[in-house]
Amino acid sequence: MSSDLLNLTLRIWRQAGPDSPGAFRNYTLNGVSTHMSFLEMLDVLNEQLIESGEEPVEFDHDCREGICGMCSLMINGQAHGPDNATTTCQLHMRRFKTGDTIVIEPWRATAFPVVRDLVVDRSAFDRIIQAGGYVSVNTGNAPDGNAIPVPGRVQEVAMDAAACIGCGACVAACKNASAMLFVSAKVSQLAVLPQGKAERGERVLNMVAKMDDEGFGHCTNTNECEAACPAEISVSNIARLNREFVRASVVTGG
Amino acid sequence: MVRVASETLNSRVPEGPIQELWDKHRFNMKLVNPANKRKFSVIVVGTGLAGGAAAASLAELGYHVKSFCYQDSPRRAHSIAAQGGINAAKNYPNDGDSIWRLFYDTVKGGDYRAREANVYRLAQVSNSIIDQCVAQGVPFAREYGGTLANRSFGGAQVSRTFYCRGQTGQQLLLGAYQSLMRQVETGKVELFTRREMLELVVVDGLARGIVVRNMTTGQLETHTADAVVLCTGGYGNVYYLSTNAKGCNVTAAWRCHRRGAYFGNPCYTQIHPTCIPVSGDYQSKLTLMSESLRNDGRVWVPKDNHDTRPPAQIPDDERDYYLERRYPSFGNLVPRDVASRAAKERCDAGYGVGETRLAVYLDFRDAIKRDGEDAVRKKYGNLFHMYEKITAENPYKVPMKIYPAVHYTMGGLWVDYNLMSNLPGLFVLGEANFSDHGANRLGASALMQGLSDGYFVIPYTIGDHLAKATLPAVPEDHPACVEAKQAAESRINKLLAVQGSRTVDSFHRELGGIMWDHCGMARNKAGLEKAIGQIRELRDQFWKDVRVLGSGESLNSSLEKAGRVADFLEFGELMCVDALHREESCGGHFREEHQTSEGEAKRNDAEFSYVAAWEFNGVGEEATLHKEELNFPNVPPTTRSYK
Questions:
Q1: CA distance, residue A89 to nearest chain B CA (Å)
Q2: N-to-C CA span, chain B
Q3: Using one digit for the tens of pLDDT, what is the confidence trace for B52-78?
Q4: pTM
Q5: Which residue from A minimizes the CA distance to B451?
Q6: Of B570, B637, B598, which Cα lies nearest the Cα of B250?
Q7: Least enclosed by CB within 10 Å: which of A162, B3, B270, B504?
Q8: Are B603 and B591 in contact, with CB atoms under 8 Å apart?
Q9: Choosing from B336, B341, B564, B640, which is the catalytic residue?
Q10: If 0-12 CB within 10 Å is exposed, 13-18 middle and 19+ buried, where does residue B123 land?
């Protein structure tokens, strides 16, 4: 595992607050190990900035193992950077070459306003889930876990959809800033499972209405979302959402 | 010498046969009638499995709940990163499991340092957890016929672990999160994200509120309620490098400790055996590879410590499968503490592999040969993918390199059978409390405990407190609120005023080094004494020389980190004090002075069969030790053997 060292130019979006104008700033960073993760590279930059008296670059991150969905970043115009099925925190510097200029921006979408630098507000996603992304079952109400068999292939479809980490890359990658992939993943998971069937009609109608309300754009089937998704959520979920939506719209009572 | 309180702590476990305790207790506890529940408000800090489950369940009962988390969404709490699974005593595989066996395994796995009554209750409610999660739409793995699937995990000889591929924590958390959001929609839960708890408000001896910093605006907010439920996770990040999320911290718990809540068994930390080794100084965190990998992976090092051949070229008879050699009956499935120490032993003896020689192999060659690559991919695909992302090596072809890393903390705020701390009105759930895992936690038990506490314990026990306590309204301008807010504010100002030369991370990294070297996988008296001196010095230096730029009035991650590291610098000392006083080896706490001739941990039940709960007397002042005696009438202590 011998490591090469990279010399990089970083072009980073700096913005002091939600209402301040933002701008790109250039930074030079030398001696970056190819074993570093992308966020570790930013840690090193921030240590240097603090030492030189400049406020560090704010970015969201937490688990740093690709599952919490907190990290974001448009890297050279690609959500989560150049690798497939990879969050920014799992992207490693061996993907870059010495001399590269790397452009780093926040997610750009009306529904995700910038909080500071590279940090955006994704609470719109929470409000969409709040509108119906659940099964209405109070604690203590549940029958035995094996009471309703769920065939393996149904469970696999549900699990594929449930793997969404809620990072918002799909919105950031979409030219319309549509949240269809995110919404469809939750709608699909709960629509295919027997436990979610009772509310499937109401759920899809409420979630879609909320999505529109929050200012996300419409889906024009360009599939950029699927290409950017670190959890490999398939656009077939969007097709299922559309079917669920039509079904719920025409069937009385959802 | 340690200052010991004269009275022992009362755990308030009811009398009677252990099978009947929880039923009897539920009957004896006071109830709050449904119409009155809406008059009570409860603060829940943290939205992981314990916090999310508690907030949702309490709101369903009718309480008014205020839920807080430091992340931008409750769905991101670090429970989400749990990979392997969740235990329950369903006995679906018909392989001999029972509530009693899960109870027995957990008490034994905890090396007889957990409270029997709590563990029994945990095993009892474990089955309801699975039912609840299934009903929420958690997509647990299924057999072809549609029934729930199980797998094996370390420390048990039955198959009782339920799982969702390698993302069990994520799916369980999303289940709890969705229930929580449903209650937000009904208006029973008020949600406060990007808030960090900085102080506890105590009025007339009762926990009645918290002070939080709005991490976006920098504003300090005071929130009052009739009870405070702390679900703020563990303190593994005191080591700087751990498998915890970067934001995990001890601040909420430590602030409560400073206000009078006792800290139980802080030295009990879990070092997880299967993590990706450190690669350089810039390393910001360590990544766990699920313990479930040990079901099919075999752990080994070369028999010859000068053997530098690529692993595939080393023939079987020149490999030392040291877990299978030392522990033939459990083999690669020994509990975490045992597996970690065995890896350290091999590496310390010079048999480590890789560039740093601080790694051992976890090899899937035989499993792939036996079951085929597709079968292995189906079980562990996402883990293999993650490993390859980080190391650029393909584990289908080359064995993984692994090394132990800090993962979980069994210690936490002391709580009684009701999960209430010694500070009335302050409840502590999940990893943040000390209660169920003793000195070592078994795999797939953390998820079980978090959800048990949140879904099935606190909804009952909180009612008993609310029904009995006298709880006059606490206005925001109450002197206790004003004082707590001022304390939080002056600390922030103090951190910003130092304007020194060193970054927060540099202090954190240095503290982590001290803790890992002297209070890590193996500890001894001289090392711990040295560490205490070093921590004190580092703490002084921190307050003289830390550099926090920017202001308190905006998003400022340096300031957030500085507050957390300041608390770790106080807390780390207590961990070492606890480790120093516990003159025995048990579970994750290994004192080199106390081991058998074969290098196994040697417990001292005669002198240390108690919970050490520490009372705060001031920074740098000696803490007072309160003991809760532990008794094991149902699972008589034996030497834990996995041979």
A1: 10
A2: 37
A3: 999 999 999 999 999 999 999 999 999
A4: 0.97
A5: A139
A6: B570
A7: B3
A8: no
A9: B336
A10: buried
